[in-house]
């Protein structure tokens, strides 16, 4: 395993700047996620790290090695693609052994390493099967085995689960994380699936328009987003506009159209000035439906509900805008048009953001 460092990486395609001065450091053995909306630059950054694209400027280091202009096969990194990129006319074993044959590895060693790679991805004995006999999940495991058989130090994954159904995606999440950790690999994983990133990542970077919006652990990104874009992209949130009244000990009292709300400032280096415009981010599960008011409460009426088994989703109309509320394991279901309700949130669950 080794660290990966990108320093001031810029990548332009004509007049379009896909990466705009990206700097990040990935620790050895870390499973690091790159995520963001389509066109944010995450796949371009992964391709630069893999050597499939050359940065316009900036540098990429694997450990102490500057690999910025090094060809892909010399980087000791392996890539797993969204499309699997398997050859249908070759058997499972032949697909996996292809990279070893290119490297002129002796036949006896190839056979042993292919069997080891199949064991790693829990497909022992599948070497002689044809690719068209394999399910989508099995084909993705073959793609992983082909990457692992060359014994890379880094594993690069470009939306590897997007072609699988929901149940298989959940199963393969655990498998990929297990494989990265058991084999001591540094992993970089590109996805637009927030749930995938929250479930698997050690840390993640959220990209927007070729820049990094925020880097942190899943909990840090979800609980303490530093911008409305990050708050809205990772999970669902309610955004309320407001104005700072006063800030004390990291908490801000804000004036909103629905009344005063207190929240915590997400940026430790920022203290909103009185009168400064704000955005308040409140996750749907942070709201509590109550029948009477109190501190950090706003009034509203339920306009819509959706029963989802272990949780129920409400949409509540308030003077601060439509609020989404999620109640887990609901025992009492309230119907649209019932008596007005009060939404309450703890101070810790209201995140104060720059407008």
Short description:
The chain is α+β, with helices and mostly antiparallel strands. Helix content is 23%, strand content 37%.
CATH architecture of the largest domain: 3-Layer(aba) Sandwich
| CATH fold name of the largest domain | Rossmann fold
Radius of gyration: 24 Å
pLDDT average, as an integer? 91
- The helix/strand class is alpha+beta
Whole-Å distance between the termini? 41 Å
For the record, what is the CATH homologous superfamily label of the largest domain?
P-loop containing nucleotide triphosphate hydrolases
Please give the count of helices: 8
Q: At the first level of CATH, what is the class of the largest domain?
A: Alpha Beta
> How would you sum up the major sheet?
6 strands, mixed
Low-confidence stretches: none
The strand line-up of the biggest sheet is 6-7-8-3-9-10
The number of strands is 20
Global outline: globular
Share in helix: 10-25%
Domain module tally: 2
Q: β content, as a range?
A: 35-45%
SSE topology string: EEEHEEEHHHEHEHEEHHEEEEEEEEEE
How would you sum up this structure, described in words?
By secondary structure, the chain is of the alpha+beta class. It has two domains: 225 residues, Rossmann fold (3-Layer(aba) Sandwich); 119 residues, OB fold (Dihydrolipoamide Acetyltransferase, E2P) (Beta Barrel). It has a six-stranded mixed beta sheet, sandwiched between helices. Strands 11-12-13-20-14 form a five-stranded mixed beta barrel. The mean pLDDT is 91.
């Amino acid at each position: 395993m080794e660290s990966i460092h990108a320093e001031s990486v810029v990548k332009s395609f004509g007049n379009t700047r896909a990466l705009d001065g990206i700097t990040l450091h990935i620790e050895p053995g870390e499973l690091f996620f790159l995520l963001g909306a389509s066109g944010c630059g995450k796949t371009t950054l992964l391709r630069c790290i893999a050597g499939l694209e050359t940065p316009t400027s900036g540098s990429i280091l694997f450990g102490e090695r500057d690999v910025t202009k090094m060809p892909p096969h010399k980087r000791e990194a392996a890539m797993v693609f969204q499309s699997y990129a398997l050859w249908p006319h070759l058997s499972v074993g032949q697909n996996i052994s292809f990279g070893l044959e290119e490297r002129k590895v002796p036949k006896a060693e190839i056979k042993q390493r292919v069997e080891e790679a199949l064991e790693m991805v829990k497909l022992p004995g599948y070497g002689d099967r044809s690719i068209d006999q394999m399910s989508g999940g099995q084909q993705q495991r073959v793609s992983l085995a082909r990457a692992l058989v060359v014994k890379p130090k880094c594993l690069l994954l470009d939306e590897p689960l997007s072609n699988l159904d929901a149940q298989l995606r959940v199963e393969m999440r655990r498998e990929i994380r297990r494989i990265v950790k058991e084999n001591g690999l540094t992993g970089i994983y590109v996805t637009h699936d927030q749930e995938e990133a929250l479930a698997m990542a050690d840390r993640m970077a959220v990209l927007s328009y070729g820049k990094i919006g925020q880097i942190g652990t899943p909990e840090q990104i979800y609980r303490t987003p530093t911008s409305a874009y990050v708050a809205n992209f990772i999970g669902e949130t309610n955004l309320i506009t407001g104005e700072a009244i006063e800030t004390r000990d990291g908490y801000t009292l804000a004036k909103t159209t629905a009344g005063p709300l207190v929240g915590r400032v997400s940026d430790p280096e920022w203290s909103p000035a009185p009168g400064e415009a704000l955005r308040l981010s409140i996750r749907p599960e942070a709201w509590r439906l109550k029948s009477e008011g109190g501190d950090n409460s706003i009034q509203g009426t339920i306009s819509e509900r959706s029963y989802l088994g272990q949780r129920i989703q409400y949409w509540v109309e308030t003077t601060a805008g439509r609020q989404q509320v999620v109640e887990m394991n609901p025992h009492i279901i309230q119907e649209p048009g019932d008596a007005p309700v009060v939404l309450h949130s703890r101070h810790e669950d209201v995140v104060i953001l720059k407008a």
